[in-house]
Design a protein that fits this description.
By secondary structure, this protein is of the alpha+beta class. The protein has four helices and ten strands. It folds into two domains: 95 residues, Protein of unknown function (DUF541), domain 1 (Translation Initiation Factor IF3, 2-Layer Sandwich); 104 residues, Alpha-Beta Plaits (2-Layer Sandwich), CATH 3.30.70.
């Protein structure tokens, strides 16, 4: 029984080694990682218009008028037609609860979402003020971006490769060996993200009556975009 268990363990170990494509000779497996940060220079903004009126056609017409006013002023922010996408307009009964907790119809609600790509981040504050002025009820999301994202992704990957080489050389030297040729590159990941720390209010600006619930103006301009890359590499080891 013990012999069978030992044989099974050896077979499983051999299968695991084969799955990771490791060489039979001396080798070292390292994971190189790198981070590149940069300030954003553009933004994608998702806006929502919402109007409630007694008649459905009135609600739709007011949303149409607000969206048209927004589109008419986009040239002031250097936004062309290719940088705009407007979703379908939805019109539905506006329901509320009465004093007996029964749902009753209270007019009609019309909603429409518009996504805008702003190429000049310095105009963001002015654009948000303009959007709220023409009737936007909610700024659902502000995604800060970089127009040179592909360059920064490549820079992060290059640094991750250099980090893998440095780690491999350092470890090999510590054991009186030298780093040989690359046997395999098992995987690589490149990604980016932006954030606002613990402050989540900036991702959603809502209008309640005449009050705008938001963070102090310009807060989001201090944030940065982080590009991360990692690469797993198997090197041969040379022992003299």
């Amino acid at each position: 029984m013990m012999l069978k268990s030992l044989l099974l363990l050896v077979l499983c170990s051999s299968s695991a080694m084969a799955a990771t494509s490791l060489p039979d000779n001396r080798h070292i497996v390292v994971k190189g990682e790198a981070v590149v940060r940069t300030a954003p220079d553009s933004a994608d903004i998702t806006l929502e218009f919402e109007v409630v009126k007694a008649e459905s056609v009135q609600a739709k017409q007011q949303v149409d008028a607000q969206v048209n006013e927004l589109l008419a002023g986009l040239n002031n922010f250097f936004i062309d037609e290719k940088s705009i996408s407007a979703g379908r307009i939805f019109v539905e009964p506006n329901m509320r609860y009465d004093e007996n907790d029964n749902q009753v119809k209270d007019g009609f609600r019309a909603t429409r979402k518009v996504k805008v790509s702003l190429k000049k981040l310095s105009l963001l504050d002015g654009f948000l003020n303009f959007a709220l002025k023409v009737g936007v009820n909610q700024i659902e999301q502000i995604q800060l971006l970089s127009t040179k994202a592909s360059d920064y992704e490549q820079a992060a990957l290059d640094k991750a490769v250099a980090n893998a080489k440095q780690q491999g050389s350092s470890l090999a030297s510590a054991f009186e060996a030298k780093l040989g040729r690359v046997y395999s590159i098992q995987s690589q990941e490149v990604g980016s993200h932006f954030g606002y720390g613990s402050n989540t209010n900036i991702e959603r600006i809502m209008v309640t009556g005449s009050r705008i619930n938001t963070v102090p103006e310009g807060k989001y301009l201090q944030e940065s975009i982080t590009f991360r890359a990692s690469v797993n590499v198997v090197f041969d080891l040379v022992v003299e």
